[in-house]
Specification:
Layout: H1 2-10, H2 21-29, E1 34-37, H3 46-54, E2 58-62, H4 66-78, E3 83-86, H5 92-103, E4 109-112, H6 120-127, E5 131-136, H7 156-160, E6 167-172, H8 177-186, E7 193-196, E8 204-210, H9 214-223, E9 229-233, H10 237-249, E10 254-257, H11 263-274, E11 280-283, E12 296-301, H12 308-315, E13 325-331, H13 333-344, H14 349-367, H15 373-379, H16 393-396, E14 403-404, H17 406-418, H18 425-433, H19 438-443, H20 459-471, E15 475-477, E16 484-486, H21 488-495, E17 501-502, H22 526-543, H23 547-550, H24 553-562, H25 567-571, H26 578-599, H27 612-634, H28 639-646, H29 650-662, H30 683-693, H31 699-704, H32 711-726
Helix pairs in contact: 1-3, 2-3, 13-14, 17-18, 18-20, 22-24, 22-26, 26-27, 27-29, 28-29, 29-32, 30-32
Length: 728
């Protein structure tokens, strides 16, 4: 565990483990099977990634989505971890390169889809190496009682029998106790230990609003989240396409995603979203499982999800960086009928029963008047008894003006009774309002005594009242057909003078936002944050990777709150390890220092943001490496020789020498000039550009010379320039 903690800081940039991570890693390193139930953004990945770097052999990660695998592999490579990926998305050259990296035992982690395990080529490859750990991500997919059962996952138990000495770890964000037992059984786990983290995502604001004018409600919500990344979930493909078209017309940055699109178009739109080229993805539930994007600031459910598990996973795709994120569900009873229609298409009676049970639980959550977290978290078997979370609409709703609504209740119940308990809420409301609809006239209900007796309220007020009647159990919905029926309590209201109290005017949720800890959301320099965000985007575009792979929003927020001025301070920021410090540290430090000088701001870096441990690691590891390389280069070793000795690319050695020079040390020019491909008479033009634009970033200079001078040459020329002009 000493080694595990060192890896946590040096590579991943964190000073301490999150709850349960240390215990899980200890269990895995002891070669004991583990089932990990941890919410999205809770830190599941580290539970197998850190052991993978300690094990002598290979760790495989079985994951259901190619997009998730690609993101995680890219993130690990940015951290300097040798990681391979084998799936159908690779070119033949990439596939063979990755295959050989596993065969030669270079790779520490290998990401695979479950279907790949059926291939003899893959099975033989894994048998040829020492397989220490089998990781099954999104493990709920193995259970038919889960919300996302996948038949190909059923083969994993048989696959595991080929590697009896390998430890197995299953991970998921959503699993009821029944699903947990199913996972352990089907993965053939031996005396497994369960680790269940709290399902409470405290940074997510949960809100359910009655669906009135869904398009306008969506526009209003998006206007509250300008320039932020988010996901909108719709029930059908047509809704996705229509909403994308309408919102795009208004100028919102959106792209659609659903199963009716080609793989190429779906992958393209997802990539644009992940790289922050597009702000909003409008999708069916086909989108998002395992999306490894940390800066999603909101999730809007345009329609009712089918079950609590799906809802929890979908809102969990926001706020992975720990910052506040808003989750809005638009709820209408008509959505229930749509979902029921598809449930009825299922041939298996057992499947229909499970689906209807799931739907009923989802509806109860939407109708709940107590803290949203109570029914949500208790559903997963966790005991939650907090009366006030401070981060949901029910907890922050304004004081409701209670009134006597017995007479409106009696009118509504009478209308339900006289129409035979066969109709839904909207039909009954139209009847009470005296609407002249063809359906009412066709049924002859315009002749009933209840026709038109409810004109003292408008349609919106009657909808609010109807929700209350259901919640108070004086009415019940038939989930099969969506009709409203009377309950035993109905008679008390109609005939026994039982009083009903409720609200007529809709209570608006409070706009009060929970104050988050310093440095996490509100208390940071927004102008500096935007500068850092743009720099991150520029670097990401140059590298062809998502911005959050470089630094998360949370990391940028902490930089913008603390104004770090030294590498020691920067290393104390959450998410910055030694590899990222070496790769990006000087770029962001230069930007922060320049901003602070211009604004006359001093560092606000607090000792509680870092530890003596991080400073010592910098001194012992990062500092040692670039200084040793600089000194060895000055003694006569070539760039190629140093790259060979340290088993890195020559570009990495050049980065170390750049840092060595920026720290105030000179290097010999021999061995550098020989590697530059442009004639020496062109050096001065580049040096003049360095003088005008600085040496922090090279992309502008690369463009200035029409991309005719390579980045390698620019890096080498920068070292010479710093050597001759700054240190002379």
């Amino acid at each position: 565990m000493v080694r595990a903690k060192q890896i946590l800081k040096d590579i991943f940039g964190y000073d301490s483990f999150r709850p349960l991570q240390e215990e899980i890693i200890q269990n895995v390193l002891s070669m004991k099977d583990s089932l990990v139930i941890m919410p999205t953004g809770g830190g599941k990945s580290l539970c197998y990634q850190i052991p993978a770097l300690i094990f002598e052999g290979l760790t495989i990660v079985i994951s259901p989505l190619i997009s998730l695998m690609k993101d995680q592999v890219e993130q690990l490579r940015q951290l300097g971890i040798k990681t391979a990926l084998l799936n159908s998305s690779l070119s033949s050259e990439e596939y063979q390169f990755n295959f050989q990296s596993v065969k030669s035992k270079t790779a520490k982690l290998l990401y695979l889809a479950p279907e790949s395990l059926l291939k003899d080529e893959i099975l033989n490859l894994l048998k040829s190496v020492n397989l220490d750990c089998i990781t099954v991500d999104e493990a709920h997919c193995i259970s038919e009682w889960g919300h996302d059962f996948r038949k190909e996952y059923r083969q994993l138990g048989n696959f595991r029998r080929n590697f009896p000495s390998a430890v197995c770890i299953g991970l998921t964000a959503t699993a009821t106790p029944r699903v947990q037992d199913d996972i352990m059984k089907n993965l053939n786990m031996v005396q497994p230990k369960k680790f269940i983290a709290s399902f409470n995502r405290e940074n997510l604001f949960l809100q359910v609003s009655p669906k009135r004018d869904s398009f306008q409600q969506t526009v209003d919500f998006l206007n509250e989240h300008k320039n932020q990344s988010g996901i909108i979930y719709c029930f059908s493909r047509k809704q996705v396409d229509d909403l994308h078209e309408d919102l795009s017309y208004l100028g919102f940055s959106t792209k659609p995603y659903h199963a009716g699109m080609s793989d190429e178009d779906r992958n393209k739109n997802q990539d644009l979203f992940i790289k922050d080229e597009v702000q909003i993805i409008i999708a069916t539930i086909a989108f998002g499982m395992g999306i490894n994007k940390s800066n999603v600031r909101f999730v809007l459910h345009h329609d009712l999800p089918k079950n609590i598990e799906s809802y929890y996973q979908e809102i969990g795709r926001s706020g992975r960086d720990g910052l506040r994120s808003d989750c809005l569900l638009l709820f209408s009873y008509s959505d229930i009928s749509k979902i029921n229609y598809f449930i009825e298409q299922k041939e298996d009676e057992k499947e229909r029963l499970v689906a209807k049970t799931h739907l009923e639980t989802m509806v109860k959550y939407a109708e709940s008047e107590i803290c949203r977290r109570y029914p949500l978290i208790n559903y997963f078997g966790e005991s939650y008894h907090n009366d006030f979370c401070g981060m949901c609409d029910n907890c922050l709703a304004e004081e409701k003006e209670m009134a006597d609504i017995t007479v409106p209740a009696q009118k509504f119940l009478s209308a339900v009774k006289r129409t035979g308990e066969k109709f839904g809420a909207n039909y009954i409301i139209d009847l009470l309002l005296g609407e002249e609809s063809d359906r009412i006239f066709h049924n002859g209900h315009h002749n009933l005594s209840v026709y038109g007796i409810g004109k003292e309220f408008d349609k919106k007020q009657w909808q609010i009242l109807t929700h209350q009647f259901v919640r108070k159990e004086i009415l019940v919905r038939d989930l099969e057909v969506g009709s409203l029926k009377l309950t035993p309590k109905s008679s008390d209201v109609l005939f026994n003078k039982c009083k009903v109290r409720g609200i007529i005017k809709e209570a608006k949720p409070s706009t009060k936002r929970m104050k988050l800890p310093a440095g996490s959301e509100e208390n940071y320099d927004h102008e500096l944050y935007e500068l850092l965000r743009k720099k991150r985007k520029s670097i990401a575009d140059d590298k062809g990777i998502p911005p959050f792979v470089i630094f998360s929003d949370k990391t940028l927020v902490q930089m913008s709150a603390a104004y770090p001025q030294t590498e020691n301070e920067l290393l104390g920021i959450s998410g910055i390890g030694i590899n990222k410090l070496e790769t990006y540290g000087s770029i962001f430090l230069t930007l922060i220092k320049s901003y602070c000088t211009r604004k006359n701001i001093k560092t606000k870096f607090s000792s509680n943001l870092t530890t003596g441990t991080s400073k010592q690691k910098l001194k012992n590891n990062s500092g040692k490496r670039y200084i040793v390389i600089g000194e060895e280069f000055n003694k006569g070793k070539s760039l190629d020789k140093l790259a060979e000795e340290y088993n890195v690319k020559p570009q990495t050695i050049i980065s170390h020498l750049t840092r060595y020079v920026t720290e105030g040390n000179k290097v010999r020019s021999e061995g550098i000039k020989e590697k530059i491909s442009i004639p020496e008479d062109k050096y001065q033009a580049v040096f003049s550009s360095f003088k005008e634009e600085g040496t922090t970033t090279l992309s502008n200079i690369f463009e200035k010379f029409n991309k005719e001078i390579s980045y390698v040459d620019l890096h080498l020329l920068r070292i010479i320039y710093l050597n001759e002009n700054i240190l002379s």
